[in-house]
């Protein structure tokens, strides 16, 4: 196995294109190294992208932020601006693994590992984040919601990698939140995850909402019906119940070692509702 | 002389909390665990494991594997001679070598996912891995059975054609998965239930759980051309490993020297062998040392766990709170070979209580799972979980405080236990009172919170034990024990040696001797080390003191009886008192060469009179009724230690038992697919608690001295894992208002039990 740590995106793309199916990108390595040790993958080349500036930088952009794909969860947590604007995305990153793992695990890695249970993905989808992808044919933008196509599967073409993720400008009276359920307190994988991003008007009425769920389908889902359920409401009991029902209705999980279909479906509604209430409180505090 | 329990004496070291002798090595990473031993020219040993839950091995072809460059040896069932299926005495254990050999390396059949089938030794991990892939095993898959009730059915797939239920009446006429039926009777339960005003009967179920030691099994073996062997391994009992391996490999016991490494947890799971005989056989065949280290996945698939079980319990009581009868019937999963801890499970079931009428029946049941190994108080947490759950329900039923109900029925000195003996001085009542009087028990709960109480019992053991104590030329001492140090025993043994000799704790340097350095010493288990090795240490120290007094007598030219040993020095006594200046240990050691040679003490004993351990746990939980999640809010343990030699390590045992119990009660379970293969062989999905899952566990050390030990010690290592399961189940049931009868009480099961509350409506 060859290890390469190129300094530029072009070089990284070149190496990956050349390797074809036998190349793997190494950012934090918290998934990749586990797969290597378990011998579930045997790549010929591992391309470490941590020496590429864009992948390691968080920068403001058009009122929002561009986050390098290899920026770690711990770094997101230490970024005051990001924390203030997108607390849900940051708390999702800070739920991954443990403190030690958050020092390595990256946003891009969490996305491209394409686990249906990835914690940051529902939060990014709720935030309407866009991935900037670079490959042999240049750059393209793709909504985070469309990057993952199934377990371990992405929409990336051969030689492509995610360079950065753009979070839009967060409007006034808007806030996001992310909750996940695990039986323990850390070092676990989401049984269900729920991200909510919403906007309130001056009267506390919801004018826009995006609800996304993790670990309840083959990939993280945007659930428009769940968002629609609270738009126009003040998140009263009836609206929240509808949101929870819509979230549960959108679930198409499997029974596996981490949870049953019935359990995941029920808890998805509970978490979506609770995340909406947290986002509501946060948005209200910004008013 | 050693004070009985410290009473009347000022103890200088016993009961204090000195820094542990192995502490610096452990916090700096110098300590050498099983995988840290290496030998020049060692080969890498790897194991090929079964991909089936149950299959006949039609053939094994290793020819291609042997041709891989770097491969020095491949072993299969043909390389380890078979032995007859009968119990053989190994030290204090009875071992069925026919089963043991088949567990270490499958012969006719593979009996569980991960069962070892062949092993390879090669010059590199890559070559070993490649060789494993080239071993051709022709399997004929068979139907498998995992569940205890299914395994007992007449139409279940039978694992062993030669297994006929022992103790069956009438005798079994065909093989089955029920290896054994046992029964214990005290009084007459029919009479007892007649006297009862309240009779409750419930069925419970628990899942197998792994010991979860952090350090995977690891060893290095070297067998030379002249048939001598050396083995370094992570084990709780290197003398037991020596005896078993020597017999399996066909060596004289004294030709094999086994050294126990530092051990990263065992909890009973390192009292058996897995890799060790394979490494020795590979080394013998290859002519090079062989190192083997398990992966975590191998640890889960092929070692441990303890049993899962079904238990039916029936209890009768009068309305004023007197239990009139207790009945239990339990079936324990043994894994692929007989030997579940159902026997101690039956014996412990009602042991915390003073009952007149008890009837307990147990079944030992094989299934297509790894063969169980000991896990802290083997068998007791399972049966006592069921009993403690029902005790709590009966207390609720008659409207009595759960502690008062237990106090009214608690075992005490003179109680005739259902399993045989009459108890001496014990602390069951003291632990109940300690919990009742605790601030914790008297603090109100919040909404969605529940409180649970559970008590527990474990026998504790003594056994064969050797200790040597050598006085160095400068008056310091080296203490050698044969019991691997898992829980801080080098500290406690040094404390007792320092106390006896009257020297500073820091002047005693303890080590764990290898099997060629001491006489046979039974393993670290049964909560026996501080008791047994402590007793041997005191005896060795007494021998040293006797010799020191004799040397002083020689120097002073007075009779040896006229010398006493006080505060670390020899003093003339009786008529000679004050006639000579005292001689310190240092002075006597310096002149030892001129007064008769080196000064040493040696004790080889069979320690008798271990004191039974009783404990009571108190736990508060909060249940999220929308997700079924249980959070442990507060936890207090009270247990009788007899005498806490090093209170920090006693507290550590109490806390560790509670934490393992929390995992067992709430989230730990083996998940198998329909194919019988384990789906969660790792700490990610085998959900043991992490540090943030548990509160600080408060402890109360009760001390009712064991009259059979010089300092009053009882074992403390196992009792703490007995009460948590019942205590937590009781707390959860009080929090949600529904009784649950199955472990683990994982979120989906709790949510199902509370029913309907999770449709997302209502906060």
Can you summarize this structure?
The complex is a heterodimer of chains A (287) and B (763). Chain A is an alpha+beta fold and 287 residues long.
Please state the average pLDDT score of chain B: 96
* CATH topology (level 3) name of the largest domain in chain A: Uridine Diphospho-n-acetylenolpyruvylglucosamine Reductase, domain 3
Beta strands of chain B, count:
28
| Unreliable sequence segments of chain A | none
Separation of the first and last Cα atoms of chain A: 54 Å
Largest sheet of chain A: 5 strands, antiparallel
Give an overview in words.
- The complex is a heterodimer of chains A (287) and B (763).
- Chain A contains 11 helices and 14 strands.
- Chain A has 287 residues and is α+β, with helices and mostly antiparallel strands.
- Chain A folds into 2 domains: 2-167, Uridine Diphospho-n-acetylenolpyruvylglucosamine Reductase, domain 3, CATH 3.30.465; 179-286, 2-Layer Sandwich (Enolase-like, domain 1).
- In chain A, the strands form 4 sheets. In chain A, strands 4-5-10-6-7 form a 5-stranded antiparallel β-sheet. In chain A, strands 11-12-13-14 form a 4-stranded antiparallel β-sheet, sandwiched between helices. In chain A, strands 1-3-2 form a 3-stranded parallel β-sheet, with helices on one face.
- The longest helix of chain A has 26 residues, at 261-286.
- Chain A is globular and about 55 Å long.
- Chain A starts with a strand and ends with a helix.
- Among the domains of chain B are: 23-31 and 462-607, Aldehyde Oxidoreductase, domain 4 (2-Layer Sandwich); 36-143 and 211-302, Aldehyde Oxidoreductase, domain 3 (Alpha-Beta Complex), CATH 3.90.1170.50; 425-454 and 611-754, Aldehyde Oxidoreductase, domain 4 (2-Layer Sandwich), CATH 3.30.365.10.
- Chain B starts with 22 loop residues before the first helix and ends in a 9-residue tail after the last helix.
- The relative contact order of chain B is 0.13.
- The chains are: A alpha+beta (287), B alpha+beta (763).
- At the A-B interface, helix 10 and helix 11 of A face helix 20 of B.
């Amino acid at each position: 196995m060859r290890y390469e740590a190129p300094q530029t995106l072009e070089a990284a793309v070149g190496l990956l294109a050349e390797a074809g199916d036998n190349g793997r990108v190494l950012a934090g390595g918290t998934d990749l190294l586990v797969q290597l040790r378990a011998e579930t993958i045997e790549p010929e080349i591992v391309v470490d992208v941590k020496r590429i500036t864009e992948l390691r930088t968080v920068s403001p952009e058009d009122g929002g932020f561009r986050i390098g794909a290899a920026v770690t969860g711990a770094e997101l947590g230490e970024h005051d601006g990001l924390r203030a604007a997108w607390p849900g995305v940051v708390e999702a990153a800070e739920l991954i693994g443990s403190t030690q793992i958050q020092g390595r695990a990256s946003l891009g890695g969490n996305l491209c590992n394409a686990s249906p249970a990835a914690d940051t993905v529902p939060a990014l989808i709720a935030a309407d984040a866009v991935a900037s992808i670079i490959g042999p044919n240049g750059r393209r933008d793709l909504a985070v919601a469309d990057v993952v196509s199934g377990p371990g599967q992405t929409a990336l073409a051969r030689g492509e990698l995610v360079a950065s993720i753009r979070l839009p400008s967060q409007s006034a009276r808007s806030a996001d939140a992310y909750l996940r359920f695990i039986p323990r307190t850390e070092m676990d994988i989401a049984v269900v995850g729920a991200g909510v991003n919403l906007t309130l008007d001056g009267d506390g009425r919801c004018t826009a909402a995006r609800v996304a769920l993790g670990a309840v389908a083959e990939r993280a889902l945007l659930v428009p019906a769940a968002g629609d359920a609270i738009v126009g409401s003040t998140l009263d009991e009836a609206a929240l119940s509808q949101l929870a029902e819509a979230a549960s209705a959108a679930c198409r999980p499997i029974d596996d070692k981490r949870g049953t279909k019935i359990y995941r479906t029920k808890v998805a509604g509970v978490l979506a509702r609770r995340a909406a209430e947290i986002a509501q409180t946060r948005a209200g505090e910004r008013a | 002389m050693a004070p009985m329990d410290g009473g009347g004496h000022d103890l200088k070291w016993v009961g204090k909390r000195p820094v542990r002798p192995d502490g610096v090595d452990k916090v700096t990473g110098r300590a050498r665990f099983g995988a840290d031993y290496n030998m020049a020219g060692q080969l890498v040993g790897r194991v090929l494991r079964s991909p089936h839950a149950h299959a006949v091995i039609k053939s094994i072809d290793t020819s291609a594997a042997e041709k891989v460059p770097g491969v020095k040896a491949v072993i299969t069932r043909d390389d380890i001679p078979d032995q007859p299926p009968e119990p053989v005495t190994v030290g204090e254990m009875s071992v069925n070598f026919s089963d043991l050999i088949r567990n270490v390396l499958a012969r006719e059949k593979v009996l569980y996912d991960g069962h070892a089938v062949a092993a390879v030794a090669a010059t590199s991990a890559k070559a070993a891995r490649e060789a494993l892939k080239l071993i051709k095993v022709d399997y004929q898959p068979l139907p498998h059975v995992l569940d205890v009730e299914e395994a007992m059915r007449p139409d279940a797939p039978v694992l062993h054609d030669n297994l006929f239920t022992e103790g069956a009446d009438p005798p079994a006429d065909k093989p089955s998965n029920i290896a054994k039926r046992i029964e214990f009777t005290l009084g007459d339960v029919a009479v007892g239930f007649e006297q009862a005003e309240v009779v409750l009967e419930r069925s419970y179920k628990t899942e197998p759980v792994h010991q979860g030691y952090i350090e995977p099994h690891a060893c290095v073996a070297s067998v030379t051309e002249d048939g001598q062997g050396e083995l370094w391994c992570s084990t709780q009992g290197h003398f037991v490993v020596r005896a078993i391996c020597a017999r399996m490999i066909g060596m004289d016991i004294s030709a094999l020297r086994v050294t126990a490494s530092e051990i990263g947890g065992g909890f009973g799971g390192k009292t058996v062998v897995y890799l060790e005989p394979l490494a020795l056989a590979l080394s013998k065949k290859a002519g090079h040392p062989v190192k083997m280290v398990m992966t975590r996945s191998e640890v889960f698939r092929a070692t441990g766990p303890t049993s899962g079980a079904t238990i039916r319990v029936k209890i009768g009581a009068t309305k004023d709170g007197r239990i009139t009868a207790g009945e239990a019937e339990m079936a324990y999963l043994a894994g692929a070979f007989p030997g579940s801890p159902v026997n101690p499970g039956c014996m412990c079931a009602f042991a915390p209580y003073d009952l007149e009428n008890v009837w307990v029946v147990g079944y030992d049941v094989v299934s297509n799972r790894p063969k169980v190994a000991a896990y802290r108080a083997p068998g007791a947490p399972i049966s006592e979980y069921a009993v403690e759950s029902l005790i709590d329900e009966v207390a609720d039923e008659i409207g009595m405080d759960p502690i008062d109900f237990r106090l009214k029925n608690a075992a005490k000195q003179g109680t005739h236990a259902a399993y045989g003996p009459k108890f001496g001085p014990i602390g069951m009542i003291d632990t109940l009172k300690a919990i009742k009087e605790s601030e914790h028990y008297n603090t109100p709960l919040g909404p969605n919170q529940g409180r649970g109480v559970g008590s527990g019992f474990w026998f504790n053991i003594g056994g064969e034990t050797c200790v040597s104590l050598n006085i160095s030329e400068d008056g310091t001492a080296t203490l050698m024990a044969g019991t691997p140090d898992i829980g801080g025993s080098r500290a406690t043994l040094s404390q007792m040696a320092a106390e006896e000799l009257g020297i500073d704790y820091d002047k005693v340097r303890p080590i764990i001797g290898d099997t060629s350095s001491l006489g046979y010493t039974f393993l670290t288990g049964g909560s026996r080390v501080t008791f047994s090795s402590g007793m041997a240490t005191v005896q060795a120290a007494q021998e040293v003191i006797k010799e020191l007094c004799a040397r002083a007598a020689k120097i002073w030219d007075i009779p040896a009886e006229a010398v006493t040993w006080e505060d670390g020095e020899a003093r003339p006594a009786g008529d000679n008192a004050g006639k000579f200046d005292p001689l310190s240990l240092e002075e006597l050691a310096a002149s030892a060469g001129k007064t008769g040679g080196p000064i040493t003490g040696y004790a080889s004993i069979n320690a008798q009179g271990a004191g039974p351990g009783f404990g009571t746990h108190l736990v508060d939980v909060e249940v999220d009724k929308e997700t079924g999640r249980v959070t442990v809010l507060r936890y207090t343990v009270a247990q009788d230690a007899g005498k806490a030699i090093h209170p920090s390590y006693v507290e550590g045992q109490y806390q560790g038992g509670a934490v393992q119990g929390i995992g067992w009660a709430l989230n730990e379970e083996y998940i198998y697919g329909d194919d019988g293969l384990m789906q969660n062989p790792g700490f990610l999905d085998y959900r043991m608690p992490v540090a943030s899952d548990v509160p600080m566990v408060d402890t109360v050390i009760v001390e009712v001295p064991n009259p059979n030990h010089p300092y009053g010690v009882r074992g403390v290592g196992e009792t703490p894992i007995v009460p948590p399961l019942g205590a937590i189940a009781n707390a959860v049931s009080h929090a949600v208002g529904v009784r649950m009868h199955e472990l683990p009480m994982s979120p989906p099961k709790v949510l199902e039990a509370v029913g309907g509350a999770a449709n997302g409506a209502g906060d």
